[in-house]
Amino acid sequence: MPLPPSTPDRPAPTTAVPAPPHLRADLPRAVGLVVLVALAVLAGDLLTSTGALDGGDRRVQQALAVSAGGAGARLALLVDLVLGPRTAPLLVVVLGVAVGMGRRSGQEGLRTALLAAVPWALSKLVKLLVARPRPEITDPTDLVDPSTVHQLLVPMPTSSSFPSGHTAIAAALGCALVLSLRPGRGRWVAIAGAVLLALVAAWSRVALGVHHGTDVVASLVLVPLLAVLCAGLLEGRLPRRPVGT
Description:
single chain, mainly alpha, 9 helices
């Protein structure tokens, strides 16, 4: 009896495994980060090349100027010291450690530190790409109070003026803390504190005469948007711990 003809083995049909939802959302978020940085660089270049808002910047600076020895000057100098480029990395680490200990999770601490560090680092990238000069105050009669001398309060930084680094780290720390908390009264308190810290930092930079008003506005707008996108990117890689664990 003849044997039936053999048929070659055929591979079993395979079904495509869909990508995890967070991976499908990662590309738009990553593109969003790039677009935000590019728009910030474009805005800084336009402000530098056209000087379109220089008049407004000068009026804001005159209105916020602080007198040497006054309470406003002491507060501005304190902000300058605490949020400076040398202390900013330490503040990021301290925030990450504090959140990690409070949540009893090193992953939560790392996530919070990254939410502060990445937006701040991207703002520094914008600063490197935009060569906007610092404000110049050469004629005391230009000031509302001629006794105000900005350059004598702090040395004028040599880095680019746009955007404000002190304002950026203040906003980054505040956003990272808020995004580390669950919805509730505590988060609303953190939001109020974060807004106050960012606004005080922004005021201090203009009051000391080391930044244009548009520099600090750029940081106040850019950093929170970057932080929200970074939170989305980290959600799939460093997911939040469930409440009660």
